[in-house]
Amino acid sequence: MPRPSDQQRHALTELLGLGSHSVRKSYYPELLVRLEELETERNRYKWLFEHAVHGIFQASLHEGVRAANPALARMLGYDDPQEVLWSLTDLANYLFVGGSEELQRIRQVLAHQPGLFGYETQLRRKDGSVVDVLMNLLLKPDEDGLIEGFVADITERKQAQQRLQLLNEELEQRVKARTAELQEANRNLLQQIVERKRIEQALREARDAAEEANHSKDKYLATASHDLLQPLNAARLLISTLRERSLPAAEHNLVERSHQALEGAEDLLTDLLDISRLDQAAIKPDIDVYRLEDLLAPLASEFQSVAAAEGLRLKVRIPDYAIGTDFRLLTRILRNFLSNACRYTEQGRILLGGRKRGEFLELQVWDTGRGISADQLENIFLEFNQLNVGRAAERKGVGLGLAIVERIARMLDYPVTVRSQPGRGSVFCIRVPLAHQATEVASASASVQVPVGDPLPGRRLLVLDNELSILHSMAALLEQWGCEVVTAVDQAAAIQALGKQAPDMILADFHLDHEVIGCDVVAYLRQHFGVPIPAVMITADRSDQCRRDLQRMGVPLLNKPVKPGKLRAVLSQMLREPMQG
After folding, report:
1. CA distance 336 to 408
2. pLDDT tens-digit profile of 484-495?
3. pLDDT digits (tens, 9 = 90+) for 8-18
4. How far apart are CA 288 and CA 324, in angstroms?
5. Distance between CA atoms of 111 and 137, rounded to whole angstroms?
6. pLDDT digits over 75-114, tens only?
7. b/e 207-235 (16+ beta carbons within 10 angstroms → b)
8. Quick check: 297 and 317 in contact, CB under 8 A?
9. Which fold has domain 52-153?
């Protein structure tokens, strides 16, 4: 360790006010340690000053720059920090882009404040280019005009801001251009709407199909479907009447072929209407709690005859549960499963039932048909897809049945699964939530018993419809079932035809002439005869509003074209209830 010089020892002696002898004896080691610490601290600050990332300088407001670190020199394009030790004149005339006026403003601020922080300016580099910087200037106390400055290069940030500003300007231009395009598109759309309204008005006038302006797509579709379903319904009823009669083999074959053609047309039209309404979100679920027997028993009654006609056995097992669901939509899914099972099963049996899966009930339809290969399982729910096997190849249609099932199940959030083995059969399952409500079903797993006896023969039924073809067709079918049939096109005709005797049941069309609603006629006849006559509404209107109106009245609904098997099942159930009560 180097020993301090005489001058240093004398300075320390004078500083402490001690004699040289005392210093040497008592304080000399401690002073040496302190000197070493001061030297180490000075070297550390010197290293930080020289190796700092940002520029650092010391300057006097009266003389100019006294010291600068290498980072500041590099920032300004110089190799040696000594080259940036400018005088005040150099600072004003060369370094600051704002010149002497900017330097004067800085001096004025520092004359009243201890520092200037976050000051953004531009400095001129050695090659004449300009660099954007952020300065923090600190005025040192007790020293006349001495400041320490810290300089950060913010050129990249400024360039980013400029690019952002440019992007904002470009975005504004694009928004203006897009707005102009949208305005033009809106004008074109308005013109198309005006033209469409003109065409729709011309169509309504040409067909004489409506008396009021109707701009709703759903209502327009309902009106068109009503016109198509009316003659189809009449033809279907007539064909069903002929099918139940004893005919020669040749005529029976013709009737069966006509029945299949009408059935195909009916399925196609019904599927197209349903899938159109599902895609337009025109159907809204109406969730309520139902006993499982109330859901499955009508399906069992309806498909008993369908399965028997195909040479199949239908077995139904109904566990004692209640479910929370939309009755109509879930019935649509199960009816599709059963219809496909009857269609694709050549021999054997079909099973309809349910199994509890935790908080859910899995409704299942089993069949012993040909089955579905693994490579086709993922495609059966696609639109316009049909399995080209068995009798299904002879049926006409576009393959929308399971596509409708998939849409309804997705809307209800019910998982649908399919398991199948080619040559052995298939099982279609849908999982529905159980309802926490007790039911009164006797056994947990009981087979559905088809009631003994036919309640239809001898019953007096009123058929109310504004289409004469449907009246004739419905009368022929019901009379063949042994009923006494009274027909009428409106309320006045019904009163006249019935006389003083109330009918056992009313089958009424929902939409009659002159905007009369069938429900109103039913209510009037009940009041007229003073008895709660059972009634069934038959309509081509598939809107949710029509369904809700009938639910409030407690009147069953059958959609046109009416399936004879379903019609007979509903009539039998309703006519049997008073007899059992």
Report:
1. 12
2. 999 999 999 999
3. 555 545 554 54
4. 5
5. 12
6. 888 988 888 888 888 887 778 888 888 888 888 888 888 8
7. eeebeeebeeebebbbbebbebbbebbbb
8. no
9. Beta-Lactamase (3.30.450)
**Element (DSSP H or E) covering residue 10:** helix 6-16
Count, residues in the chain: 581
Pick the CATH number of 212-283+452-581 from 3.30.300.30, 1.10.10.10, 3.40.50.2300, 3.30.70.1270: 3.40.50.2300
Alpha helices in 417-517 (DSSP H): 468-480, 491-498
**What is the distance between the alpha carbons of residues 406 and 383, in angstroms, rounded to a whole number?**
10
CA distance 13 to 22: 9
Q: Kindly report, residue by residue over 429-448, the tens digit of the pLDDT.
A: 999 999 875 444 333 333 33
Question: Cα–Cα distance between 213 and 196 in angstroms, integer?
Answer: 13
- CA dist., res. 324 & res. 94, Å (int): 85
Amino acid at position 421, single letter: Q
State whether residue 444 is helix, strand or coil: coil
> Is 29 within 8 Å of 114 (Cβ atoms)?
no
Helix or strand run (H / E) with residue 463: strand 460-464
Please indicate whether the domains covering 52-153 and 212-283+452-581 agree at the CATH topology level.
no
Return the domain boundaries, the chain: 6-49, 52-153, 212-283+452-581, 286-447
Q: What is the mean pLDDT of residues 396-400?
A: 49
Q: What is the mean pLDDT of residues 239-257?
A: 71
The confidence score (pLDDT) of residue 64 equals 86
Which pLDDT score, from 0 to 100, does residue 431 have?
A: 92
**Cα separation of 100 and 96, whole Å?**
8
Residue 433, beta-bridge partner list: 360
Rounded CA-CA distance 87/66 in Å is 9
Look up tokens 């409708």; give the residue: 404
Residue 385, classed as helix, strand or coil, is coil
283 vs 289, more confident: 289
What separation in angstroms does the CA of 131 have from each of 69, 73, 153, 306? 17, 12, 7, 90
Instruction: Write out the two tokens for 15.
Output: 């500083």
Question: Which CATH class for the 286-447 domain?
Answer: alpha beta
Q: What is the pLDDT of residues 421-434, one digit of tens each?
A: 888 888 899 999 99
Alpha-carbon span 555 to 174, nearest angstrom? 59
Tokens of 510: 């929902």
Cα torsion 173, 178, 180, 181: sign:
positive
| C-alpha distances in Å from residue 314, one per residue of 20, 149, 320, 365, 368 | 125, 96, 20, 10, 11
Q: Which residues are paired to 361 by β-bridges?
A: 356, 432
Average pLDDT for 375-379:
70
Say if residue 5's pLDDT is above 70.
no
Q: What is the reported pTM?
A: 0.43
* pLDDT interval class at 342 (50, 70, 90): confident
CA 476 to chain centre: 48
Which CA distances in Å does 542 have to 137, 183, 275, 557, 558?
81, 38, 12, 10, 10
Task: Look up tokens 């499955």; give the residue.
Answer: 296
